[in-house]
């Protein structure tokens, strides 16, 4: 078994669970590389990445290069003498970085590659109504999420599971996959599988304002999947109009109720302390919402201070 000396690269919460597992298993962590600090929120206070917060707690060496091709950074990285690099939810690496360690650079991706390459694999698997997903470790190459696969771990997606709930389960699955991958690399027992180039592949596009907006003309099951696939972050959204007012509303939880009706799509119905929006094949029961300048609330809580007329529409 070769002794591993690891450089870890990652930024968000998802990466923290993996880094913690590597640390708790007493691997030699030469350094942690994460995103530069940036101002956030109304006060523009400097915010550290989740990975940096963890690395500070454990007194690990931290590098935060703005430019991964910077000569000074590359020299520092080389001087660490790491023989493997582990990448989890980081940015695209230049060849000079991923080719540096003797035993390679591998990535943990939260999908069953080659499906859902890209920035938001957990969200899109739920949005598209998939019933199965998982995690994949693979050696990085010059393209995004296309490298030779080391191993996969699979899990079911539950019918009402949110992206946030799936995120947490996949992080635990990812811990298992990364630790197994490190054992294979240390023992020289890695057998990779080349990703197929002719497969029909679904892409995990970056989430933006347009693809997070609810289209009320879609089938109820599709809208339900969009809402749970964007919960808790960044959240599906819609406009609600009533009596000349318009609110930009985030929807965090909803239930699809199949039914026949003659109402226009988007028509808001308020009954029994519930808020429902009509869709082509039934109603979306809006369980948890957030109106502008208000906290997240259940529909019943919201209706304590909000009166919606029978002309209200979701658009």
Q: What CATH first level of the largest domain would be assigned?
A: Alpha Beta
Taken as a percent bin, the fraction of beta residues is 25-35%
- What structural class results from the helix and strand content? alpha/beta
Order of helices and strands: EHEEEHEHEHEEHEEHEHEEEEEEHE
Number of strands: 18
Separation of termini? 60 Å
Q: Give the domain tally.
A: 2
Query: Any idea what the radius of gyration is?
Result: 23 Å
The residue ranges in which pLDDT falls below 50 over 5 or more consecutive positions are none
Fold-level CATH name of the largest domain: Rossmann fold
Number of helices: 8
What share of the residues lie within helices?
10-25%
- Indicate the overall shape: elongated
CATH architectural type of the largest domain: 3-Layer(aba) Sandwich
Strand order of the largest sheet: 5-2-1-6-7-9-10
Largest sheet: 7 strands, mixed
Could you give me the name of the CATH homologous superfamily of the largest domain?
Formyl transferase, N-terminal domain
Mean pLDDT: 95
Could you characterize the architecture of this molecule?
The protein is an alpha/beta fold. It has two domains: about 5-205, Formyl transferase, N-terminal domain (Rossmann fold, 3-Layer(aba) Sandwich), CATH 3.40.50; about 220-315, Methionyl-tRNA Fmet Formyltransferase, Chain A, domain 2, CATH 3.10.25. It has eight helices and 18 strands. The strands form four sheets. Strands 5-2-1-6-7-9-10 form a seven-stranded mixed sheet. β14 (about 270) and β15 form a beta hairpin. The chain is elongated. The N and C termini lie far apart (about 60 Å). The mean pLDDT is about 95.
């Amino acid at each position: 078994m070769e002794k591993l000396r690891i450089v870890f690269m990652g930024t968000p919460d998802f990466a923290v669970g993996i880094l913690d597992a590597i640390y708790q298993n007493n691997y030699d962590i030469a350094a942690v590389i994460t995103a530069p600090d940036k101002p956030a929120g109304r006060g523009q206070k400097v915010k550290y990445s989740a990975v940096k917060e963890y690395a500070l707690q454990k007194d690990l060496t931290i590098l935060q290069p703005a430019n991964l091709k910077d000569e000074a950074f590359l020299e520092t990285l080389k001087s660490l003498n790491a023989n493997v690099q582990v990448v989890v939810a980081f940015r695209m690496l230049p060849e000079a970085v991923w080719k540096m360690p003797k035993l390679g650079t591998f990535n943990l991706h939260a999908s069953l590659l080659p499906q859902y390459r890209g920035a938001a694999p957990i969200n899109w698997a739920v949005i598209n109504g998939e019933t199965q997903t998982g995690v994949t470790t693979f050696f990085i190459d010059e393209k995004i999420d296309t490298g030779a696969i080391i191993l996969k771990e699979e899990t079911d997606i539950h019918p009402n599971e949110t992206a946030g709930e799936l995120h947490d389960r996949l992080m635990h699955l990812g811990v298992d996959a990364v630790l197994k991958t490190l054992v294979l690399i240390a023992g020289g027992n890695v057998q990779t599988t080349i990703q197929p180039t002719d497969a029909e592949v679904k892409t995990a596009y970056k989430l933006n304002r347009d693809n997070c907006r609810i289209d009320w003309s879609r089938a109820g099951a599709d809208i339900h999947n969009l809402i749970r696939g964007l919960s808790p972050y960044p959240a599906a959204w819609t406009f609600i109009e009533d009596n000349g007012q318009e609110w930009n509303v985030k929807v965090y939880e909803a239930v699809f109720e199949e039914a026949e009706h003659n109402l226009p799509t988007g028509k808001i119905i308020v009954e029994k302390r519930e808020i429902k929006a009509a869709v082509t094949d039934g109603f979306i029961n809006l369980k948890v919402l957030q109106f502008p300048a208000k906290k997240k609330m259940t529909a019943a809580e919201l209706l304590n201070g909000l009166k919606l007329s029978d002309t209200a529409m979701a658009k």
